Amino acid sequence: MNSKKIKTTTPEARKKIILNFLKDNESVTVQEIVNDCNASEITIRRDLAELEEKGLLIRTHGGAIRNTAAENLFTFNSKMNQNKENKEYICKIASRFIEDNDIIFIDCGSTLSFLSKFISKKESLTVITNSLPIISELINFSNIKLIIIGGEVVNERKAVYGHSAERTIGQYHANKAFIGADGISLAKGLTSYDEKEASITLKMAENADEVFLLCDSTKIEKNSFVTFAPYSILNCVITDNDLDLKYISKYQKNNVSLIHE
């Protein structure tokens, strides 16, 4: 790691340093992180424990190693095949909220990518998206006005990110935004594994009249790495029928509708 010490006071910043290092290296020692972050061993061990709990690394006696299983979670192709039937089910429900002549944002992500098959027959629709699979599916439909968000293409995620993408989104206003997240909880709100992805998602939500979160039931009351928005930005959460029913009343009490059938 870097020989120059970086004064890092927030847990989020320290964890980002740890994960960035493990992207390029198989392992890291506690002492290396201590030196880089100018933090105590106790603090760093606590950070590693929290990251391990989220499945982002594996702790060892003197530090941590890369979790290759977690790496696969970040790639679009790997995520596409996880809970595929539930994702299609979620998108079928979501399509009922899309009306002819709507202007909609569609976020990137494996769940959202299934939405295109249920909306292509709409009489007229404007879709604004950063998702390459959505673009590929809808580009040949003359009834769909397709607005492509420009920016940095990230191959593994099959999506466009960056400041240019955020500026583009800010130029538009939609009736509805259909977004994704890696976790949602009443305690932490919406969370993501990736900061760039989270920034795009938040920008879409901020520029829409109604916001629909599409996520499978395994993400309900789960927290991921980056907290990026309060649950209050949502009009509704659309999930699958494997949902634990105890969550429905809890979310209703907090003015969030959970739809699962």
TrEMBL record:
Keywords: DNA-binding, Transcription, Transcription regulation. Residues 11-66 form the HTH deoR-type domain. SUPFAM superfamilies: NagB/RpiA/CoA transferase-like, Winged helix' DNA-binding domain. SMART domains: DeoRC, HTH_DEOR. Pfam families: DeoRC, HTH_DeoR. GO terms for molecular function: DNA binding; DNA-binding transcription factor activity. The keyword Transcription regulation applies. PANTHER family: AGA OPERON TRANSCRIPTIONAL REPRESSOR-RELATED (PTHR30363:SF44), HTH-TYPE TRANSCRIPTIONAL REGULATOR SRLR-RELATED (PTHR30363). This is DeoR/GlpR transcriptional regulator. The lineage of its organism: Bacteria, Pseudomonadati, Bacteroidota, Bacteroidia, Marinilabiliales.
